[in-house]
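Justification of resources, computational component.

The compute hours requested in this renewal are based largely on the per-chain cost of generating structure records like the one below. Each record pairs the submitted sequence with a full C-alpha cell output. That output is archived, and it is also reused by downstream analysis tasks.
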Amino acid sequence: MYRSLVEAGRLGLLFALLSVLTPRAASETGQQAPGTETEKKEQTKNSSNLIKTHFVNGNQAMQGAKAIRQQLQTAANAQKPALLAKMKADYQAAITEYEQALEDTRVNDANGVRVIGLIGVIRNGLVSQEKAVEMLVQNKDLPVILSNLGMAYGGLGEYQEAITMLQQAAILQPAAPTYWELATDLAEVGRIEEATAACDKISIVDAPAKNVSASCKKNIAIVLVNEGKLAEAIATLQQVTQLNPQDALAWKLLGDALSSTVTTKPADGKILYVIPAGTIEAYEKYLQLEPTGAYAKQVHEALEELVRLAKGVSTRTEEKEKN
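The structure output for this chain reads:
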C-alpha cells in the first residue's frame, strides 16, 4: 500500500563517448571557420526543431506512463502485468526521446569547444557552478529536459541514473519539483540525509512551499516504512506533522509506524502491551482532520485494537483455553 502512495506522488551510469568539434581561432590559422553565417543560423534552427520534437515526444510518453500508473491503483490483478509492461515501455520511450534531445543540443564549454552529445557531459558531471550557468545561458531548456529525464529513470526504478540527471537539473535551475523527485530517489537508495536535505531546499527555492517540503519528507518516510526502517520513518513523520499539522495522511502514517513498534512485557499473570507514546494521539488527529476519510474505518479499528491491547491479556486465561 505504501509503495503505491510513493508512486502516486511521482510525476546504470553508462558514460557516453564525448565527441567534440574544436575549430581553431582565426587568429591562430589566419582563416575563417568553415560555414557562412547563414549556414550556421540554419544549423542552429534545425537543431532547435529537433530538440523540440524529441522533447514533445518525451512529454507524451511521460503522460502515457502517468495515466497508466493511475489505472494501476484500481486495476484488477489480471490486468496489472499488461499495464506494467506498457508503463515501462512508455518510460523507456520518454528516456530515449529526452536523451536524443540532449544529443542534439550544442553547448560551448569553458574553452570555446563545441560539445556534441551533451548526455556524456551530464553523466560525467558538470565541471562547476560557473560552467552550469554558462550552459544555462546557452540553452534554457536544459534543466527541464534533465528534470523530466530524471523522472523517467525514476519511474523505471533506475534510481542512480535518475539522481545524476536530477542533480544536474537542480544545479542548472533549482526547482521544487526537481528537488521533490530527487529526494524520493535518494531515499530509495538509502541516502536519507541527502534526501532530507533535498526536501529542505524546496522551501529555499520556493518560500511559500513549506507544505510541499513536508509532503516531500512524507514520501521519504513511506520509503523508510517500506524498507522496515521504522525508527527513521517515525522521526521523519514527526517532522512532517510539525511542519504541516493539517496533513491527515501524515498523522495516519505516523500512527501506523508507531503501532508497528508495540512491545510486550509480562506482569502479574498478564502480557502487557506497551503502546508507544503518541500512537493513539496520531490516529485521533487523523480522525479530527478526516472523520470520513479514506482511512477512517481502518483507523477506528486500529484504535479499538490498541485500547484492547492496552488492558493486557491474561496468560492464565490463555492456558485454560489451550487445555
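Residues 273 and 310 are 6 Å apart (CA to CA). The longest strand covers residues 263-267.
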